[in-house]
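Subject: Interface between my chains keeps coming out wrong

I've been trying for a while to get a sensible model of this assembly. When I model each chain on its own everything looks fine, but I need the whole thing in one frame so I can look at the contacts. Pasting all components below, labels as-is. Any help appreciated, I'm running out of ideas.
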Amino acid sequence: MDKYDIVIGLEIHAQLRTESKMFCTCDNYSVGAGPNKNTCPICLGMPGMLPVPNKKAIEWTYLLGMALGAKVAEKFCFERKNYFYPDLPKAYQITSSTMPPIIGGSVEIDDNDVLKKIRINHVHLEEDAGKLIHPKIGEYSLVDLNRAGTPLLEIVTEPDLRSPREARIFVQDLRSILRYLGISDANMEQGNLRCDANISLKPQGQKELGTKVEVKNMNSFKMIERALEHEVKRQEEILSENKKIVQETRGWDDAKGKTLGQRSKEEANDYRYFPEPDIPSIEPNKDNSIDLKEIKNWLPELPKEKRIRFETEYSLSKQDADNLTSDLDLARYFEQTLAEIPQVAGNDEIKKQKAKKLANWLITELLAKLNGQGISILDCKIKHQNFAVLIEKIDSGKISGKIAKEIFSEMFVSGRGVEEIIKEKGLSLISDEKEIETIIRAVISENTASVQDYKSGKEKAFGYLVGQVMAKTKGQANPQIVNKLLKEFLDKE
Amino acid sequence: MKEISIQQVEDLAKLARLGLTEQEKTSIAKEMTEILNYAQSLNEVNTENVQPTNQVTGLDNVFRIDQKIDSDIPIESRLGNTPSVEDNFIKVKKVLD
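Reply #2:
Try treating it as a single job with all components included. I did that and got this:
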């Protein structure tokens, strides 16, 4: 069924992690706070209250605009979007979509080495609504307005995405940008990054867009891809039966694995937008009210730039560089650990060698553990310096890969140093030839049959004997020395 | 002349969660029609080349710095106007997501 082109546009909401809310001084961080603790007459929508915009939220909006290569509007205005819902105490949301602060811009996504520019229509700044809880029993809902008034950016794309996969990659890239800028926690599972999609199909080659359906309730990257894939299939089936797509809002039900038609918010589709009379317009260039030059200086190295630098500076593969830079904290951990390895300074070749080894350890071992236990790199107990020591010990042959993993596991749990663990567990690699010789003599005298096998040409017997030596030393003997000495001994016999 | 229908009044009343008697619906429909028609006289003004008015205060760029200050009004008072509260949640008629 390859007859249709898929057209997807996204609306992404990202909560800003400012200290205070958008229009009042309430604490903007409510994790663990009791219901309605962080509220005041302004965010509760009491009559006569006067909302005053948070300057940082506006500056961060411009910062994102600059990161997206967008245009900063000369003037933007807040406005009221009216609708009735219990999570919205004023019965209107203060937003700015009609005259938005940020216009245009783009994100270049990379889908298996195919680069594609996804255009942004605009970014606007608004306030979040409260949270509704629906107890299973009882004919009522509960409202918590701690979230009401949290600054919220809405990023609206052009319908440039052509597959559910592209949509997922785009949101992941945007999340990275938001995190690199330090303006949002951008965590989908925790709801501070949310994504709605408009999706339609049209016969291949046709210019006019098909009827679009809005898909909501996708709370993870995986869900975005799954929900949209399901929606593509659903629409394909309808169209192939020559039926019409109904323009509607559908919610993704992850447990059922399908989208379901949602009842609209009581058919209130006329939002009666009008300018917010209580908040004067924002004109950043007027009297230098907002220092756009200074904001430009805040721009950090962005994810793509960092990835490219990692590829060149450390000779990492694109895949490795991508893995390390997808999370800013992981990228930092990598660079700080690398800097702790003594020979790295001033020697590019050694730096690249060590970088490759460290990258492997971080991506295969550390990330597996972190992801397995669902913890962030920021909570990783292994100090940079200790990780650097571990890499050094492996590199210089002082410990084997197997022992390194054992030490690593212990470091991960306790955060203790490498030497300490080696001493306590007696894990040091035995490189002392005298010590190994003693063990080899014992193994040879205990395994005369295998020695005979080896002498009669059975190479396998050699491996068996090496295994016996390693077993006696609990894997701590330096395997190269064991090989060398054992051969000498057997050939002497 | 635009007439507000009883149906429109009923839709609005539902959104606003207002219970109206039949008599109220009729009188509100009539009053709203009059109000809207009065406001329609604004359409007589030629607004070509006129910038939309966003503000009448003459002000622009009013901000505050990003600093949290907890409300000094106790939560009991803040929630004092709500008809029903449960464990500091505001209790409302069941709504579906």
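Reply #3:
Confirming on my end. The two ends of chain B are 39 Å apart (CA to CA).
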